[in-house]
Amino acid sequence: MKKSILTLAVTILFIAFAQAADPAYIAAMQKQLEAKKTIENFEQSQTVTNGFLRIAEASETEWLPYYYAALIKTEAAFRFDIEKDKTLDEAMELAKKADQLAPGNSEITALQGYILMGKISLDPASRGQSMSPQAMQLLGKAINLDRENPRAVSLMSQMELGMSEFFGTGPEKACGMAKMSLDIYKKEETKINGEYILPTWGKTQAEQVVSKCK
């Protein structure tokens, strides 16, 4: 019985590894990630988002395609003159799909916090009090899930900076977290290679927080 269980576990791990290392999947993801870098308007962001969603349909166990589709929609809400609330709601739904495939994932949890930050930014006066604790809870959870996730730490530093500005307190905590995230980004950069498709974004935002600390 124990041997059968062990064999099953090894088989599952092998299948998971084979899917993760599938050259076609990696190539498709890399192509879309390169396309993501060229986005200059909402129409282009929609095209790239749809590309990731096609990969999601073809790779039903992979969370990253839904993650990047959600990220692009979130970034579009910050960058372009569109229906921002609707776009952020769509982003959250995609993030939830990613979460269903990889529950307890720090990157997905941090992205959900980022989406809420976008919602707050649309109407801070009426949403800040109710949504800020939710966003900080998600980011805190993301940090606890993986303390080497620079995006979770960087996004929390942005929230801390906003809170300090709102309450008129010092930015020391925010600055410390932003500097910490930059150190983690440096470690992350050593892992990136030609087939690296995990999230790497957010360093510029951390640098912007640090620039306010001088």
Automatic annotation (TrEMBL):
UniProt name for this protein: Tetratricopeptide repeat protein
Alphabetized UniProt keyword annotations: Signal
Species this protein is from: Algoriphagus yeomjeoni
Record's signal peptide: 1-20
